[in-house]
Automatic annotation (TrEMBL):
PROSITE patterns: EXTRADIOL_DIOXYGENAS (PS00082), VOC (PS51819). This is VOC domain-containing protein. Keywords: Aromatic hydrocarbons catabolism, Dioxygenase, Iron, Metal-binding, Oxidoreductase. Pfam families: BphC_D1 (PF22632), Glyoxalase (PF00903). Its cofactor is Fe(2+). Signal peptide: none annotated. InterPro entries: Glyas_Bleomycin-R_OHBP_Dase, Glyas_Fos-R_dOase_dom, VOC_core, Xdiol_ring_cleave_dOase_1/2. Residues 5-121, 149-270 form the VOC domain. Belongs to the extradiol ring-cleavage dioxygenase family. One of its GO terms (molecular function) is dioxygenase activity.
């Protein structure tokens, strides 16, 4: 097992201020107030310098996923393995590493074309989270096991077998579950864990997505905090992509909200933690124990 966690996301936004308002006023994330010459804004969830970088862009969507490695040796071996697998690998400059708050990083892509930033040595500033909405804390660590990452994300991968081999053989993730959603012939989602107890840090969907990401997930520590976010979202006029529900495979009790620009954000509580060394990958044919009634703009209208 190589990769430690899904560490951060770079998100392109046509309206950075609207995304920041959504992040702070609805999700309860903290404005990191970092200076950036390119006009990016930063949202933090914990003692990391940021977890979400919101960058001015001509189109909305995911720009890159930052995957964290535990040390320089593990990171270097993975970069070399990616190159040997035929993926382009570009070393990041010292200036760009500083911008990301990491010791070193390299940019590559998976076989589906999703951009990845492999990094090690996150430079923590230990500034405590002060949520503008009073969130007690986001679930990003667990006891002595260390970093759980920002949460999880689901990436599009029409050629899912090639992408799956890349994430297991090169990146060093492990399969936890394969979901065949009911009533959706031909659809498949595969879930992968990193070197931490979160049930999945990344998943692959066997289809395209115009925003480069199916959804991202952030987790809070109580059901009341999910309920508070629902109230804030309703007051702000945010579209609910899915009602409150509980997933089968990772036990997450969550609601799905649409961020400005259309990225789906799962806001959850009570996600499953696993002992990945003894976990046997499952196959699911049901997505939810209950709830999660979906409403896609332009489809269910």
């Amino acid at each position: 097992m190589s990769v430690s966690a899904s560490g951060y996301l770079r998100i392109g936004a046509t309206d950075v201020d609207a995304w920041m308002n959504f992040g702070t006023d609805v999700l309860g994330l903290m404005d990191a107030q970092r200076e950036d010459s390119a006009g990016a804004r930063f949202l933090r969830m914990d003692d990391h310098p940021f977890r979400l970088m919101i960058e001015p862009a001509e189109a909305d969507g995911l720009l890159a996923t930052g995957l964290e490695f535990p040390c320089a040796d593990s990171w270097q071996r993975t970069c070399e393995a990616a190159a040997e697998a035929g993926r382009p690998v570009t070393q990041g400059s010292a200036e760009e590493a500083k911008r990301r708050g990491v010791t070193a990083f390299a940019t590559t892509s998976d076989p589906a074309g999703n951009t990845l930033e492999l990094f090690w040595g996150r430079e923590l500033d230990y500034t405590p989270l002060v949520s503008p909405q009073g969130i007690s804390g986001f679930v990003t660590t667990y006891q002595q096991t260390g970093d759980l990452g920002f949460g999880h994300l689901v990436l599009p991968a029409p050629e899912i077998d090639a992408a799956a081999a890349f994430y297991t053989d090169v990146i060093g993730m492990g399969l936890t579950d394969t979901l065949y959603p009911p009533g959706m012939d031909g659809m498949k989602i595969q879930f992968y864990h990193a070197n931490n107890p979160r049930q999945h840090s990344l998943a692959l969907f066997n289809g395209p997505h115009p925003l480069g990401v199916v959804h991202i997930m952030v987790e809070v520590s109580s059901m009341d905090e999910v309920g508070g976010a629902m109230d804030r979202a309703k007051s702000a006029g945010v579209h609910f992509l899915a009602t409150l529900g509980r997933h089968v495979n990772d036990n997450m009790c969550s609601v799905y909200l649409l961020a400005p620009g259309g990225i789906a954000v799962e806001y959850g509580y009570d996600g499953m933690l696993i002992d990945y060394e003894n976990h046997v990958p499952t196959v699911s044919t049901e997505g939810d124990l209950w709830g999660h009634e979906y409403s896609f703009p332009g489809v269910n209208d």
